[in-house]
Specification:
With 136 residues, this protein is mainly alpha-helical. It contains four helices and no strands. The protein folds into two domains: 99 residues; 34 residues.
């Protein structure tokens, strides 16, 4: 799959996910539905956010960095960021739905995210310079 095919297929899939989310939003009655309606709502929103965030972050990575890296690294990094950010948004919406989102657990959530981010930077920093042809 070429880069253009990936971007176009991701764009079409993202548009279809947004259409499905709007369809679920306007046709499912939250007071009459059980867990299936809410699952469809969260699942379609997750995939729509995943595609949107991935495409935006890929564009930012591709046009803002001056490093010469293969495109699959940008795709991998943008997809990983899309999954993480979309998952965080869905998790926060789920907590808000159940009236569990308060300032104290939101603070704990962000502290845990910062710790995970710092841990990933510390582990990737030690591995990235070993055996990398550009950094040697």
């Amino acid at each position: 799959m070429t880069l253009h095919q990936y971007v176009y297929s991701m764009l079409i899939a993202t548009i279809l996910c947004w259409v499905s989310w709007f369809f679920v939003l306007f046709t499912v009655d939250p007071f009459q539905e059980n867990t299936v309606g809410f699952s469809l709502f969260y699942l379609s929103l997750f995939f729509a956010l995943l595609g949107t965030i991935s495409l935006i972050s890929f564009g930012v990575y591709r046009y803002s960095t001056s490093a010469v890296l293969p495109m699959y690294r940008y795709v991998k990094k943008s997809f990983r960021n899309g999954v993480a950010l979309a998952g965080m948004i869905i998790f926060l919406l789920y907590l808000q739905e159940h009236a569990l989102l308060h300032i104290w657990n939101l603070s704990i959530f962000f502290v845990v995210l910062v710790l995970i981010f710092l841990f990933s930077i510390s582990t990737n920093g030690s591995r990235s310079s070993v055996g990398h042809p550009v950094l040697k």
